[in-house]
Each structure stands twice: as structure tokens, then as C-alpha cells.
Design brief:
The chain has seven helices and 15 strands. A five-stranded antiparallel beta sheet has the order 1-2-3-5-4, sandwiched between helices. Strands 6-15-14-11-12 form a five-stranded antiparallel beta sheet, with helices on one face. Strands 7-8-9-10-13 form a five-stranded antiparallel beta sheet. Helix 1 packs antiparallel against helix 2 and helix 2 packs antiparallel against helix 4.
Length: about 325
Amino acid sequence: MDNILFQSYTIEERSYASFIKREIHNLVRPHFTEQRTGEIDIIVSELISNLLKYAGRGELLYRLSREEDEPVFEVLCLDSGPGIKDIGHSMKDGISSKSTLGHGIGSIQRLSNFSQIYSLPDWGTIVYARCYASVEYNRTLQANTLTRCINVAKPGEQVCGDGAAIRELKDKTLIFLGDGLGHGEFAKEAVDKAIETFNKTNQAAPADIIREMHIVVKKTRGLVATIGILDHSSKQWHISGIGNISTRLQRGLEYKNYSSYNGIIGMNIPGRIENNVYQMEKFQQLILCSDGIKTRWDLLHYPAILKYDPMLLAAALYKDQARRTDDMTILIVKVV
């Protein structure tokens, strides 16, 4: 998984929208054909147009990353408007409540390789679109887990001190979320060193990986982190963490919270660190949040959201729970 930031723009007026569309166009053009770039332009234009038309203001998150060495463009549009009463009806061409042609939502669906909409009355709407090099491309899911991550820097910062990483190793899935102390370049240096260690380690238990990281990052500012290892053969999670990374195992409306050890990796960690063991269950989700996300949230506020792609849950938590005074990361790993 690429540890690439989502860029964030607040959209409040049409004059600013043209700048954002140009920024995205220039970002994707070197990586996609002219036709596919034009199709992404249409998706972004329709998202912004609908946002301004129905909600008045909102936020656009986007990033360009790589998946199996193929470029992939992702965009999320978030608003706190009136919501969509009937999403299925609204996706039909010619349907509009604003006396327009009504092609917007339908065109987003047709031109994306994957798209979903989550909306609640008087709460707002989230639209997620994912685009590969060809609109006909259909990626086959081969792994036992589905990973989604929203990683946004503190407003005003160009880099993020949070970092996430995933590794598939034989019959295990290794998960890491770290938060360098503070924010900016020095926080990023700490978390980058930790990810480098995580990607190279031969250790088999989360607590042992943390101990190895502790030695490697001593010359940095330090970080807090949680590491999870999902053993598909024994059907168990092994989790260990230091500091205030919020960690929750969710299945349906039932969940278990993991409590990390006090300390800072690279500065001071307990002499004894245990690995907590939990049973793996089908459709279970491991949800990790840095401290830029508030912890007191309840899935009862998001009816049926677990039926959607995990990115919609990550976006809902970001929309409602982001502190916006620090780097903000939500990492979700779903057992499929």
C-alpha cells in the first residue's frame, strides 16, 4: 500500500473550483491517456458542481497512487448538506431536483472503475470514486483483506507526520499505523524510519517489531504506533502498540478496543510488552486512528455503512471526527 497523502481542498465558491480542477488535471495527465484524463476531468467537475449546487460548500480529497504498478486516482467529495433521499433514483440520467439535465451522478458512476455514495438526511453526503488507466479495467481481489486509508496533513503543512503500511507475508497480513511526535518534517522523519523498519523486519510478533523500531528511530523525534498481524492460518489477530493510536476491532455493531502501552517509541517504552490475541472473524474490521481523529464515535450514527466499501466509513469518521489541529489518519483493514 502506498503511503501517499490525500490532498484536501475546502470548496465554497465556483471561482476556486476551476483552480482545483486544473490542479487535478495536471496531476493525472502524465499518468493517463488523454481520453482517460478527460474522463477524470468530468468526474471531478460533476462532483464539484453537485457539491456547490446542493450543499453550498464541502471538502474534496484526492490522491494519485499506484496499485500493482498501475496508476490509480481516488477522489472523495464530502458535504454536510441535506443529503440524498433516494440514491438509486438520483443516479438515473435525467433526474435532477435543480432543473438541470441530471447527468452528474450517473456520469460519475459510468466513468469510474468503482464508485459509491453514502448519504443521510440532514447529515450530508460522501461520494467516492476510484479510477484506473482504463474504464474497462476490473481489478480482481486476490488478498484475504481489503485495506483503505485516509491520510491528511495538518492544515497548512505540506507533509504528514502520520504514516501507514501494509505487508502480505506468506499467510500473514502485517499492519502498521504510526504518528510522529508533533507534525511536519521531523515527525515525518520518525514515521518514515519506522515504516522502513516495518517493511524490512524478520520479526514475527508485533511487540518484537516495536522493540526493533525503538532502536532504529532513537535519533529521531520518536513516534507512537500500533502494529497488528493477522494470521490467516490460525485465524487470529496479534496486536501491540505504544501511545495514543486508537485501535478497534469491529464486527457489526459489536467491537473490542485495544489499549496501548504508555510511552514513545525511540524515547521510552516498557521493558515488557505483550501481544494481545483476538479471534479473526469474517467481515471483521480493524480500525486504527491517529490522535488527529476523535475517539468517541459510534457506528449507530452511520446506519448500514458497513455494507459499503471501508473507504466510506473512513471518510465518514474523517468528516465528523477530524480535529483539524494535527495530522489525521484512519486506516481500516477488513477481512473478506
